[in-house]
Amino acid sequence: MAIQLELYRSAPRYLAERALSGRVPGVVTSPVAPLRLATAKDPNVPGPGWAPVKPLLSGICGSDLGTISGKASFYFSALVSLPFVLGHEIVGELQEDCDDLPAGARVVIEPVLSCLARGEDPPCPNCAVGHRGRCDRVTVGHVSAGLQTGYCKDTGGGWSRSLVAHRSQLHAVPDELPDESAVLIEPLACAIHTALRARVQPNDDVLVVGAGTVGALVTYALRELTPAGRIIVVAKYAKQRELAARMGASEVIGPKEATNAVRRSSHTMKLTPERGAAFLLGGVDVAIECAGSAGGLDTALRTTKAGGRVVLSAIPATGVDLTPVWFRELEVLGAYTGGVETIEGEQRGTFDLALDLAQRAPLEGVVGARYPLRRWREAIDHALAAGKLGTSKVVFEPNA
Amino acid sequence: MTSFRDELSDLAKGFRWGRRPLTPADAQAHTPERTAWEFPTAWARTKAGVDARETILDFLMRPLLWSQTSPVVHGTDNLDGLQGPVLFVSNHSSHLDATLIMTTLPSRWKRRTAVGAAKDYFFDVWWRQAFTALVYGGFPIDRTGGGKGTATARDLIEEGWSIVVFPEGARSPDGWMQRFRHGTARMAIEFDVPIVPIGIRGAYQAMPKGRFWPKPGRPPISVRYGRPIAPQPGESHQDLSRRMVQAVALLHDEDRSSWWDALHRAEHGETPSLTGPQGPRWVRNWESSRPLPRRKRTTWR
Amino acid sequence: MPRPGFVLEVDERTPPLLVNEGEGFRLQSFPLGSRVVYSPDPLPGIRDVNAAIRHALLHPHGMDPLPELLTAGMKLTIAFDDISIPLPQMVQPDIRQRIIEHVVEMAASKGVTDLKLVVANALHRRMTADEIKRAVGERVFRSFWPNDLGNFDAEDKENLEFVGTTDQGEEVEISKRAAESDLIVYVNVNLVAMDGGDKSVPIGLAGYRSLRHHHNVHTMLHSRSYMDPRPGHSAIHDSARRMGDVLRSNDIKIFNIETTLNSETFPKELDFLNKREWEWSLKDQALMLGARKANEMAPPRIRREVFRRIEAPYKITGINAGATLEVHERTLAKLHEQQLVEVEGQSDVVVFGLPYVCPYNVNSIMNPILVHCLGLGYLFNMYRNKPLVRPGGAVIMFHPVPWEFHQIHHPSYIDFFEEVLAETTDPSTIESKFEQRYAEDPWYIHLYRNSYAYHGVHPFYMWYWGAHGRDYAGDVIVVGGDRRTCERMGYRVAGTFRDALEMASDTVGRSPSITYFHAPPLAIADVR
User: Fold this and answer.
1) Rounded to an integer, what is the distance from CA A50 to the centroid of its chain?
2) Is the peptide bond before C93 cis (omega within 30 degrees of 0)?
3) Which of A39, A182, A372, B226 suits A123 as a labelling partner, its CA being 20 to 30 A distant?
4) Is the pLDDT of residue B298 over 60?
5) What was the pLDDT predicted at B301?
6) To which H or E segment does residue C96 belong?
7) CB-neighbour burial class of residue C401 (10 A; exposed 0-12, middle 13-18, buried 19+)
């Protein structure tokens, strides 16, 4: 029997969450949440190449919180299958031999349930070239709809004692990498993907908005893998500032000072419209939005120079004024998970890059709190206010 | 001197009112885990609670159930002369099961019987907890296992309460009986209390897992109480569990055919198993969802 | 298994922390990174205290069992600790009562007739009849009061006996009755590591002639700390031990009974004071706020009365009897188990919340000099190895320090505050210029002997008590203190904790390391 924290279908709860979660902070972890700690059978192995995995640590990601609090876009509703167990940042222990990987191996899971995992042969054109994140078949095949492990009812997710994963999703973790670093490989892969999507040119000015786990890791990936010049990071809380600086930011500033700071470093004009925030004529070459808030995206759009690039690393918030995109001819592009990257003409899997990078990244202390599943309400409440509470990443220890 | 309002807001902020209290990182190792608040159920077993329950069962639940289904009850005479506490043990395939047992128990037993309910399901939100406790005298059983799961049950038996347990641990997904868990047998041996087997047929067909109201047309259901089984000296809990399964199977067989035939088959070890036919899922579902034949109610049977 | 004490580092998840401030308390947020010392959880108490007492008396350390020491016709004196411990007073029955009853029982069965009970109050005020009754119990009180049970009188020259001098020239003079007794049974309550051992008889039953040898500025400055009685760490304990040796070499037989208490300091109704803040339930929070508000609004007299009535539900954790040194060693071990907390290194600032009671204002008023003694004398010294604060660091205390004195209990304090401190706060000057005069002032002596006043010299000792702390710290800042009284004592006053840190920045800089000593319940910081 597995104990799992599952999200189930309940229209009234969902609506209550959507209506209240912004106003009554405690409601996300109250009994109103469409989330329950359930006892269920371990998920079945859906086909060849699949094996059960026992999660050791499993992160709570911003997108998980968005899903629970009912803030996620309905766009996703067609990409998931309820009830599902959340959790896609997973380091675990393989329970049975899986092709070449022996039972007992410590693995991280690349969460995308792509053509390979779904047994789609021939794979879709994106998967065929390795861009698994862009897989077109995430609703068909051996397992139910679900863009990733942690959104699919058949695979289970990280917030449980057991889940199943396909060989194509598994990456062995080097022994010397501690669990607390390994659990960050998935977000680090996303960060690498984001940094490389940004196509940073030598000495480009880059603005990173948000310094949670993703913002910090994007900063690190930019520093390590791109020729970025100045990296300005917008961080709200003291601990985030420390972390951003550690990850290689040239300058760390508060959200209110962001526009002024970019203006200073780019020597441009600042204009203040009659309503709304001030903006720059000029600014950074590339802005990366990692906060997932409307304010964050707004800042990014208003401080990027004409013809510059704005990368959406977090799930974008709605209700943002897109005028600068049109007027400044900005290039807005998304960066979702990863697949395969081209660095100096060489192709490498995003996860492989992340595994390499994780071994030298200063990841100590990024995981700021660990909770067993039974204390999920506390854990999620903590994660919701992680920045304020001086924590970057909150993780579950499902088998503790 | 700070104003009361300021202090209140400091307190609210500092202690995260409306949210979860958190433990400082350094204090984690030195702070015992907050014991989850357990819904109190003792009130439901007070005199007032028992009176209320009996009223609700007799004047609300029973008429409601009898108006939606057509249950037939046999064998309550097996309880005559029996001294409590006992463990009522039944197969479990529908939410109707607990209601069927509680509404058909003779008053003497009804007033001193409580139903063990899965903590993770029946005791997750307050209204379900209150309902379970009031109407079924329900108390939480932790299905995750370990000795603590049955702590409340043990206390109740010691206080002389009889208990309804579904040893399968969960409703059957396909109507066929699942493996009996050994907790019930262990308790029976530990306290040396008799087990009263109950066979419920037709509840699955009337309201299977996933339905929240019985199927239309007053589907027939049969509830059969069997002879009490007493744990034998030195009997292992595995053996007792096996006898429990047989007793329930016998009741089903008896209901399907006749007492005489069923006894014969039992004698030869030919009682049809309740675990269902082997084979693909559809076969099992097909067999288990076959409606019970409608019987004419006879007064003398 | 009770949880050990530990040091918390304040992080973003830490709620505001409770800080005592005299007859009241507040919640105070501390800067991130501040350290907070929490004492270990209360140890489980002995279940059958009577059996434990009997066992201790029948199986003493380094002496024969008590019944064998008792003979008909002998002179037996039972001395016991006075009202200054434990704090707050413990719920009845007091542990002293229980032990004394056992001893008296044994003495009676052995045919002892010449039995006297005496409060070892030295220069402390006499205990009232009611207070004594509370300590020894109704049965003992009714049997012995007033002829055979009473306070010790250190100014009754005829009833003092000079026993000898130590190798350092310290004169040892104790109660004549005690010195002449065939056996002294001393009943002690060990609340802090300073108490007990050779501090019992050689100090508790001694007069000024004897006390001045260790209760002086020089000794106090060299006692680091009073709570660390290991030889060489505390000059006052070294002196007491030398005096104890004189008694021992003069064949004065002392059967010492020492007890240790756990740390259940506050009654159930004030349970939040015993708990760690992040474990407070909503009820605890409401109780705290309610208690605080009610307390704030109450008239001072009622407030004092309410606090005075607090009785600690202390449980007994250990009872040892026998030869002083052997007993005390065991007592300290048990005490350390309850109070010792390891702390890594010193900090720039130490913060104390001063509670409403100290040893010298039970059923009385905490006057400014006692605030000085409690903060810089007691709490500052609750350490082993080295103080929580670095040399020259800042001590921040929370207390209102009102200009208020108990007219009956502390008459010499009033004069000390008005005359002596107005002129100087330097302990050495005070000692050389004023001590003798106050010690021999006939009016104070009269009040000490006949009323319920502390001895004329007692405020001096209180001032010396804080001498080491005052000398050691660069800055003493009192949050919420009365400006006039603090000024007279050489303290600085801050309105809020933030202001206090701001003021301290002169000595310790802008981002000092801070340690908050979260007491009571009491702890001893073992600073590494």
Assistant:
1) 24
2) yes
3) A182
4) no
5) 45
6) helix C95-109
7) buried
What is the distance in angstroms between the Cα of C13 and the nearest Cα belonging to chain B? 5
Encode pLDDT of A292-311 as tens digits: 889 999 999 999 999 999 99
Taking alpha carbons only, the member of A57, A58, A62 closest to residue A383 is: A62
Q: What is the pTM assigned to this prediction?
A: 0.80
Identify all chain A residues contacting C13, using CB atoms and an 8 Å cutoff.
382, 389-390
Of B11, B23, B29, the CB nearest to C278: B23
For residue C517, what are the β-bridge partners?
C37, C352
Residue type at position C164: G
Q: Is C433 on the interface with B (CB under 8 A)?
A: no
Q: Are A382 and B145 within 8 A, CB to CB?
A: no
Helices (H), C110-234: 129-136, 138-144, 176-180, 201-204, 208-211, 217-221
A112-123: per-residue pLDDT in tens? 999 999 988 899
Residue C73 sits at φ, ψ, to 5 deg, of 85, 0
What is the percent of chain C with per-residue pLDDT over 70, rounded to a whole number?
A: 100
C-alpha closest to that of C421 among C360, C340, C477, C484: C484
Inter-chain contact C16–B27, Cβ cutoff 8 Å? no
Q: What pairs with residue A6 in β-bridges?
A: A36, A85
Backbone angles phi, psi at B135, to 5 degrees: -80, -30
Where does chain B have alpha helices with state H? 4-14, 47-56, 62-68, 96-104, 107-110, 119-122, 126-136, 151-158, 183-191, 203-206, 237-256, 259-267, 281-288
- C383 and C347 in contact (C-beta within 8 Å)? no
Task: Return the CA Rg of chain A.
Answer: 20
Give ∠ CA B143-B149-B154 in degrees, rounded to 5: 135
CA C122 to chain centre: 14
Q: Does B15 touch chain C (CB under 8 A)?
A: yes
Chain A nearest-CA residue for B118 = A39
Gap between the Cα atoms of C121 and C123, Å rounded? 6
Question: Searching chain A, which residue's CA lies closest to the CA of residue B34?
Answer: A375
Task: Give A236 to chain C, closest Cα distance, Å.
Answer: 14
User: Does B144 contact A at CB distance below 8 Å?
Assistant: yes
Q: What is the pLDDT of residues C410-464, one digit of tens each?
A: 999 999 999 999 999 999 999 999 999 999 999 999 999 999 999 999 999 999 9
The secondary structure of chain B in percent helix, strand, coil, rounded to multiples of 5, reads 45, 10, 45
Residues of C in contact with B15 (CB under 8 A): 15, 280, 285
Q: What residues contact residue C75 under an 8 Å CB cut-off, 6+ apart?
A: C114, C180, C181, C182, C183
DSSP SS3 for A311: strand
- DSSP β-ladder status, C475-479 and C492-494: parallel
